[in-house]
Input
Amino acid sequence: MEHFVLQAFDRKKSTKGYLNENRKAGKIPAVVYGAGRTANNLFVYASEYEKALKSITESTIITLDVDGKKLNVFAKEHQRHAVDKNLLHIDFLEVQEGKKLHAHVRLVLKGTPKGVLEGGILENQAHDIEVECDPSVLPERIEVDVSGLEANHALLVRDLDPIKDVKFLTNPDALIAIVKFAREEKVEETVEVAAEAGAEVGAEAKAPEAPEAEAKA
Output
């Protein structure tokens, strides 16, 4: 698991000129909140954050190095310019050491289900689950092997392999993935359409003939 460390700087002023000057130097305004402390206004380098953004998830812990002081945080949200898409601002949530946290961890499906090889279609219903654990054991992602999933069978949260010291908070009956046998549904639909067409043809064949016009006297 790659650990990301971003260099950060105290944001001492909030004037427009001061912010623009730092943006020109490649620094983006950011705020760190949480852990029961007052929000901390900072700058981080846009290039470093953009690089990390390619790999991090909602449950990736990032270390901000503020002049030697280390802050462990989650990247919660960032804003971009509507036109040029440049970063404008980043919100970080500080991780409180020694206190269990709640986080959403991404689910990654691995393998090709047996049911798909037989003609079924895999539907991924849930892309993450909520967990509770200490920050030190928080997984960035949970890989789920679906290769044994057969047609018309489903994978639920309760079917996931347990992870040491990590508690799953999502409903155990929540659906993660299912393989549906679409081929049978299409065949049934074709039969129904054919039956309806046959019924219409039969109805036309049985329709009474119109009475002949009476001969003129």
